[in-house]
User: What shape does this take?
Amino acid sequence: MPKEFLTYQQQMEKLRSSGLRIEDEEVCRRVLADIGYFPVVNGYQSFFRDPSTRVYREGATFGDILALYEFDVELREIMLDALLKVEAKIRSALAYEFCAAYGESQSKYLDARCYATSKGAKRVLPKLLNMLDYIANKDTSHEYLAYYRRAYKNVPLWVTVNAMTFGQTSKMLTALRDSEKAKIAKRFGVGNPKELSSFIRVLALYRNVCAHGERLFSHRCHVEIPDTALHAKLGIEKIGPDYACGKVDVFSAVITLRYLLRDDEFKTFKAKLVKCVNGYLSLDESIGEERLLDAMGFPAEWKKITRYKI
Assistant: This one.
C-alpha cells in the first residue's frame, strides 16, 4: 500500500501517535518544511524506538532525533573536507606518475596497452577508457577542457583528472600498472599498492555518502580496508580472526585518512572530529557514548590514533 500524503500537522500527529514527544511545534514544523520528514525522521528515528513495536522509547523527543541529524550533518562536513584533500592528492599523484611514465599525450591514457593486464584492470578498463575518451574529446561542461582542445589539440591527464569523480579516479588507480601504483603508494608511505587501492575504494564510497547527504555515522560500506598496524596498536577487539571495527565502518575511513593525510592535516581533522563527537554527547544524552561509538565503529581508545607512528 503506497504511503499517503500528510500535511505537516498530520506528520506531527503521526509522530505523537507513535510515542514521540514534540517539545516545540514551531521548531518541528520548520524542520519538516525546510528539510523534510524522510531525511530527518526516517533517517534517524531507529535509534530512538523499539524495532519490534515501532514505538518510540519512553521520553524520546523530536529534539533527540534532530540533534542526531545535526550531529551527522556536521560529521559529514568534517569528513568531506578531509576526503576532498585526499582526492586532490590522489588525482595529482596519479596524473604525475602516469605522465612521467608515458608522456603528456592524451593518446597514452586512451591506450589500453598503457595499463595493467590483471583481472581487476581488465574489469574496469573498458568503461574507464570510454569515460576518459568522453572527457578528452566530447565533454562540453568544463571550459578548461574545451580550451585545451582548441589551443593544443590535446588534453593532458593532469587536466583530465580534474573532471573525474573520486570513483573514476579510484578505478583508474586500479587499472594502473604495478610500477606506477608503487610510486603513488610510496608517496603516502603505504608499502603495498593493493592496500592503497583498497583505501581509495573505501574513501570514494564514503565521499559519495557525504556528498549525497546520506546518513554517515552508522554507515557500513561493502568494501573493507585491509588489516593495518593501527588496528593492532589501538587494541581493537577481534571476533575470531577479524577485527570487530575499523574495517567497513566510519572508523575504517578515519584509519585510511590517518595514512593518506599529512600529520598536520590529520591532527586538524581529528581535533574537529573530537569536538563534533564531544559536542553531541554533551548536548544530548539520549544515545550515550558507548552506543554512539559502537554505531560509528569507533573503538574505546580511538582518540589515541595520533599517538602511533605509521
In short: Residues 62-102 form the longest helix (41 residues). The mean pLDDT is 96.
